Every structure is written in C-alpha cells, then in structure tokens.
Amino acid sequence: MSDLTIRDATADDLPAIIALLAQDQMGGENDSPGPPLDPGYREAFDAIDSDPRNRLLVAEAEGRVVGTFQLSFIPGLLFHGGWRALIEAVRIDESVRGRGHGQTMMRWAIDRARERGCRVVQLTSNRARTRAHGFYERLGFVSSHVGMKLHLEP
After folding, report:
1. How far apart are CA 70 and CA 55, in angstroms?
2. Per the database record, which ranges form the N-acetyltransferase domain (predicted)?
3. What is the fold, at CATH topology level, of the domain defined by 5-138?
4. SS3 for the chain, per residue?
5. Whole-number Å distance between alpha carbons of 132 and 18
6. What is the C-alpha separation between 36 and 76, in angstroms, rounded?
7. Quick one: which of 96, 11, 94 has its CA closest to 48?
8. d(Cα 100, Cα 2) in Å, to the nearest integer?
9. C-alpha to C-alpha distance for 114 and 90, rounded to whole angstroms
10. How many other C-beta atoms can be found within 10 angstroms of the C-beta atom of residue 13?
11. Of the four listed, 15, 59, 126, 141, which is most buried by Cβ atoms within 10 Å?
12. Cα within 13 Å of Cα(83), Cβ side
C-alpha cells in the first residue's frame, strides 16, 4: 500500500493540480499550468471550494502533490432518493504511478461516499484508457452505461 496523505486542496495547490491535468495525453492538451495560471482555474476552484457538495482533493507523498481528483455528491430520485458520488479528474503523477496511490485515492473516495450515505459511486473513463478500466474493475466498478459528452463553445 502507498504512503499517501489525502486532503482538501487549497488555492496554493492549483499549479500542481493543473500540472497533473496537463500530463494527460487524452485531455490535458487543453490545460496549461502556466505561468501565469489562467484565472478560470481560480474561479472554478472557488466555486468548488464554496460548495459543500463538491470536494477537490490532492494526494501528497514525498512532500509534494502527486495526485488529484474531484469528488461530488449528487442528490437524485433514483434509488428511492438516494445520493450518488461522482469521481472525476483522477490523476496520478507519471513519476509515481504503480505505487498504489490510485488505489488509495479511490478507496478513500469510496469511504467518503459511504459516510455520506451514497447509494452509488460513479465515474467515467475515456474508452481508450483500457488499463484504467481494468484498474477500476479490480476496485469493484462495473461498466454499465454508455457515457456521452457534448462540448459547448464558451
């Protein structure tokens, strides 16, 4: 298991978080760690940070941020009004992959969902990320739906 500390992100973590997002070969080309950091990142952080249904988290090891993810709690009518947890933007620094950090982060998120009374934990993963799919399946996730996106121009 990994030696990892998971905590809520602060605004000071934004450069490290955006750098992790920018490492992503399948989506990170749209993210730039700067400098300077795009003000939109701070606006998004402030919105997440002020919403009790959303948490932006970082994972620290070896004295630095090595992972991040967002955990959102969504009310719904399905499951007799049961809440669901949504895990998004999961990233582990390329230099520390394979050390169990991803598993630690996901188990932490699942535990928080249970504590919150969620009935379902869900996530999406790019269909090209076959290794990630196997990782999530080993944690108990099942492929059950087809996800779709519609990108809107700003």
Report:
1. 6
2. 4-154
3. Aminopeptidase (3.40.630)
4. CCCCEEEECCHHHHHHHHHHHHCCCCCHHHCCCCCCCCHHHHHHHHHHHCCCCEEEEEEEECCEEEEEEEEEEECCCHHHHCCEEEEEEEEECHHHCCCCHHHHHHHHHHHHHHHCCCCEEEECCCCCCHHHHHHHHHCCCCCCCCCCCCCCCC
5. 20
6. 39
7. 11
8. 5
9. 19
10. 19
11. 59
12. 15
The token duo for 72 is: 């959102």
Length of the chain in terms of residues written: 154
Residue 48, both tokens:
């997440």
Backbone angles phi, psi at 73, to 5 degrees: -115, 125
